[in-house]
Design brief:
mainly alpha
């Protein structure tokens, strides 16, 4: 009796396969796309109740000094982190690490100032006050949650062993988390424009 000869499957040399150097960036873009849709939905929820007889024009708009201070903090952090990205490309990893930790510090300052804003604003408007208060705190607290996630990722990157070598990997850790942080900053620009600045214009127009 003859037995069939089994041919072993060819071995794939994984080390020789091409590596996509942008796979981490593309993965983060997918995350940003989903999160952007989430914020678009809640912005739509914010304006849906207000579309009934210009309801938001009768509400007391939130003061502008806190959100503008927060905007300056986040924009400054983005500029610092963008500078850090350039240092990575120049192999100046000490300067890149410094930029990363400055960004982390600015992120914690942002959360602290936002806490003061909530404390001062709570007496006039709480999440249970009305539909406006509910959606206002939903949007701003959701953004704060994204800031916290961004801080955790920044800290993780900053604590990676062999800091310089980590940024030469295909995952592009520094550039990937910087992309997420810039997205969080852009979202805050929309929040300031739609939740803080626009209501002031609406109240002014309604007063006429």
């Amino acid at each position: 009796m003859s037995s069939a000869v089994q041919i072993p499957p060819p071995r794939v040399q994984l080390a020789t396969l091409p590596v996509d150097q942008r796979r981490g960036i593309w993965g983060m873009w997918c995350v940003i796309a989903t999160e952007a849709m989430l914020f678009m939905c809640i912005f739509g929820a914010y304006y849906y109740p207000g579309s009934n007889k210009d309801r938001w024009a009768t509400e007391n708009p939130s003061p502008l000094h806190y959100p503008l201070i927060l905007l300056v903090i986040l924009l400054s952090s983005s500029f610092v982190l963008a500078w850090g990205e350039k240092q990575v490309k120049l192999d100046r990893f000490g300067a890149a690490a410094l930029a990363l930790w400055i960004t982390v510090a600015l992120g914690f300052i942002f959360l602290g100032v936002q806490g003061f804003e909530y404390r001062s604003h709570w007496a006039e408007l709480a999440p249970y006050s009305n539909s406006y208060g509910s959606i206002f705190y939903t949007i701003t607290s959701l953004h704060a949650a994204h800031v916290i996630v961004g801080l955790l990722m920044l800290i993780y990157v900053g604590l990676l062993p062999r800091f310089a070598k980590a940024f030469r990997s295909p995952h592009q850790a520094y550039e990937t988390i910087a992309l997420y942080w810039h997205f969080v900053d852009v979202v805050w620009i929309f929040i300031v424009a739609l939740l803080y600045v626009m209501p002031h214009f609406q109240v002014h127009h309604h007063g006429r």
